Every structure is written in structure tokens, then in C-alpha cells.
């Protein structure tokens, strides 16, 4: 199955806004048949349950962060068990905005991946270079090595890897995009790492997706022509019409 993931970031500020968004989303999705594509929406934690209750039959729900402990005195954190028990199946981890604003590092991400897998959640691990250039492959490999250090052959197929060059995220650099060849080469770097660590057969089961300024106009070139298994979509996931259009193109 292909995968299209919406990263709603810290948006949807009120119940009214949420109802409007969910209504539009339902309407857009209602008309479509996307048999080859799994759609995942990741809202802020306060919306998890209502997203699940409203869209849970057609869409999978994910979180945008978890803590590595399951329960206890960790003020303000969200537990993997909470995400699971309120309808979540996925969790985005290692996003560059969490690294930048909350000082998360690879060791934190590694602990969170283990906690997610233990709870039966599928982590969507974001890896990507801060600057476009020659060193980008080594940055990606080092993030993969550190973040997946405790993930064995039995568990890796439940992990999704998202290649997300930080410089291509719409809020960082409007208009800057990798070429289809750049994305294909990042895909090969990730695949090679997975084959070396887990063997070819297991590596083939791991989905590799692309994130960074994806929209309905560029998705064919950067996500489909490059051989990616799907997309992580930020800005355009706030527009149900555009998001579903992206999913339809990936589904073809
Ligand atoms: C993101 O930040 O994960 C992302 C995909 O954002 P955008 O699509 O807005 O670049």
C-alpha cells in the first residue's frame, strides 16, 4: 500500500474549525476510491479522538509526538498508550521542527521509536539534510543509524521512513524543491542502509516516503517518478480538497 500522511502541525485552533475541517474532509473523501493508498491524518493530540470517531473508517489517525515512557509523572507529555487507546495507529517522529524547537536528538528519537513499536504504533521516522549538498547522504545515514539502533528485523517493517530535506519544507524555504533525481538518490541511500542492516527481503517491506512542499502540481514528479511509496504533506493537508487530490495522484 502507498501512504499519504497529513502533518497538521499546530493548527486547527477551535472546535468550530475542527468541525469545518472534518466536514470538508469527509465530503472530499466520500467521492473517492483510493484502494491502493492508505491515508493517515496526524492532528494535534487534543483532536485525536474526534478525528478517529469522525474519519476512522476511511482514514488512519496518527500523532505528531509521544514520550518514551508509558505513564507517570511526566507533566505535559503524551504517552504512546494514550495515542493507541484514543484511536491512533501512527506517530511522526524525528521531525525537524521538534529537533529545532524542542532540542530533540537522535537518542530521544530512538527511545520514542522503541516505545511506539512496543505499544503497537507505527513510527514515521523523518530524516533529512538541513542544507542541500554533498553531505546530505551522510546526514541521512547517520540519522538512520542512530534512530534505528534498537529496532530489529522483526519490527522494522512497521516503521515508515520519510525523507524530508529540511530546506524543502514549505515554511522554511517557499519554492525550493528537490528534483525527482535528488529524491530517487535519497531513496537509494535509505534502501541501501536498510538492506545492509536488515537484508533485502525485510528492507523491501519498509515504506519510504517523501516530505517537503508536496502539492497536487509537483507530487507526480517528486513522489511518483522518484519511486517513493508516498508523501508526508504539511501545508496542503490543511486543504482537504488539495490533500485528497495529492492522494489520488499517488494512488494511480
Ligand atoms: C512537514 O513539515 O512535515 C511538511 C511536509 O511540510 P510542508 O508540506 O508544508 O513542506
Task: Give a description of the structure.
Helix 6 (136-147) runs parallel beside helix 7 (180-198). With 252 residues, this protein is an alpha/beta fold. The chain starts with a strand and ends with a helix. The protein has one domain (2-251): Aldolase class I (TIM Barrel, Alpha-Beta Barrel), CATH 3.20.20.70. It contains ten helices and eight strands. The protein has helices spanning 15-30, 48-55, 80-85, 96-102, 106-119, 136-147, 180-198, 200-203, 219-224, 240-251; strands at residues 2-7, 37-42, 60-63, 88-93, 122-127, 160-163, 208-211, 230-233. The model has no long low-confidence stretch (mean pLDDT 96). Phosphoenolpyruvate binds next to strand 8. Phosphoenolpyruvate is lined by residues 7, 164, 169-170, 211-214, 232-235.
Strand content is 15-25%
Q: How would you name the CATH homologous superfamily?
A: Aldolase class I
Compute the gyration radius: what is it?
Answer: 17 Å
Task: Give the % helix.
Answer: 40-55%
Number of strands: 8
CATH topology tier name: TIM Barrel
Number of separate domains: 1
User: What is the helix tally?
Assistant: 10
The CATH class turns out to be Alpha Beta
Query: How would you spell out the order of helices and strands?
Result: EHEHEHEHHEHEHHEHEH
Q: Order of strands in the sheet with the most strands? A: 1-2-3-4-5-6-7-8
Overall pLDDT score: 96
Low-confidence parts lasting 5 or more residues at pLDDT below 50?
Answer: none
* Distinct small-molecule ligands in the complex: phosphoenolpyruvate
Q: Which secondary-structure class do the elements indicate?
A: alpha/beta
The largest sheet, given as strand count, sense and whether it forms a barrel, is: 8 strands, parallel, barrel
- Reported CATH architecture: Alpha-Beta Barrel
- Tell me the distance between the termini: 12 Å
**What would the principal axes of the Cα set say about the shape?**
globular
